[in-house]
From TrEMBL:
A Pfam family recorded for this sequence: CreA
Name this polypeptide is given: CreA family protein
Secretion signal, residue range per the UniProt entry: 1-29
Cytoplasm listed as a keyword: no
Organism: Kiloniella antarctica
């Protein structure tokens, strides 16, 4: 009886759990503001959104990301595919402390930019020779990536509380 029940449950609930896992990404950025770029008669306007997030492994570094957000009806219901345009600026905002060992190319932030196939990602590199953290934002697509990208550098400097 339990074997039959588990087969029924797994066949019925597996797609549901896949959907929940795929579309329930936690919000890891704070929206700072936005500007409208194209007026839409129905649904929200196209806009550029400015978001802020802190590096989860590097205390004292904060990043700001600007990215396009598609409006209209498809944008309102989450079916639109946002363009791959993005810009990033990261700065030291306090004493820098590494919470864990850093890995080059490690994902710091990700944001889904289409229903299934595309996401915007920020990865971090550590340039030991220059004592600089380098952050790269790019668009990742299931079938092919995008050459559109932007970088920012954060020199690791002494911080005085004065």
């Amino acid at each position: 009886m339990s074997r039959i029940f588990s087969k029924i449950i797994s066949k019925k609930l597996t797609p549901f759990f896949c959907f929940v896992i795929l579309f329930s990404t936690p919000l890891s950025a704070e929206i700072i503001g936005s500007v409208d770029t194209v007026f839409k008669w129905v649904g929200p306007n196209h806009k550029i959104i400015i978001e802020a997030f802190d590096d989860p492994k590097v205390e004292g570094v904060s990043c700001h990301l600007s990215r396009a957000k598609t409006g209209g009806i498809s944008g309102a219901v989450g079916l639109a595919e946002d363009t791959t345009d993005a810009s990033i600026a990261c700065r030291q905002i306090g004493p820098i402390k590494f919470r864990e060992e850093l890995k080059d190319g490690e994902e710091v932030f990700t944001q889904r930019t289409s229903l299934v196939f595309k996401s915007m990602q920020v990865v971090r590199f550590f340039d030991k020779k220059r004592n600089v953290l380098v952050y790269l934002v790019y668009s990742d697509r299931l079938i092919e990536g995008s050459p559109k990208n932007s970088i920012t550098s954060v020199p690791i400097m002494p911080w005085s509380e004065g």
